[in-house]
Fold Probable membrane transporter protein.
Amino acid sequence: MLLISLAIVSFFAWLVSTLAGGGSPFMLIPLVNSIQGAASVPPVITIGMFLGNAHRIVLFWRYIDWKLTLWYTPGAIVGAMLGAYTFTQIHLDWLQLLIGVFLVISIFGFGLEQKETTFKVKAWYILPAGFVKAFISGLIGTTGPVLNAFYLNYGLVKEELIATKATHVVIIHLVKILTYGAFGILSPQIIATGLVIGLVAIPANFLGKYILNKINAQQFRSIVLATMAISGVWMLWAQRDLLAFW
């Protein structure tokens, strides 16, 4: 019954994330936590995100920005390896607080300005940004749509953003899967749960692609910004006990 619930939630999470440029893990983390415990969340989410985003690459292949991806890859590989290794040694919940604050703050520039971009982004900027994102992702399982502001300012919209981001996510999660496996983190139960999340993405991605084709760039941008805000607030709420302690 729990796996059926996970499949249903995963379908809607993938559908929403196709239209919003990410955010699906935040709908899945509480359920995965209730099924297998907090320690299983990062590897389960990693497997699911790898499979679902790999399917997105197939669907949106011709929209991938390869120049940005070439700059992204070196930093992401190193960051994912270090983050996944560090996860096996220590778990830092306070990182979610920092990411939540960043997401909430980052939308203000977009929300208060009627510009398509708030600052000019060059392709090489994503090298250090990708390293930091990948490292933190290895530690806590997901960073949410933390780089969406980067993609928007670089000029990616709709299918371009979805395709390029999916490619970047797959790079990170492949490295994390290999690292988790090397350190014995991937149990059969973790793999099975991750497979459920990833396979349900296939029909959701097809439906999301159809709907995405019906909305314009401005509507997509608004959905992305709203998702960033919601994701940031969710991360802060998830760490409310730590906030209270401070």
In short: The chain is about 80% helix and 0% strand.
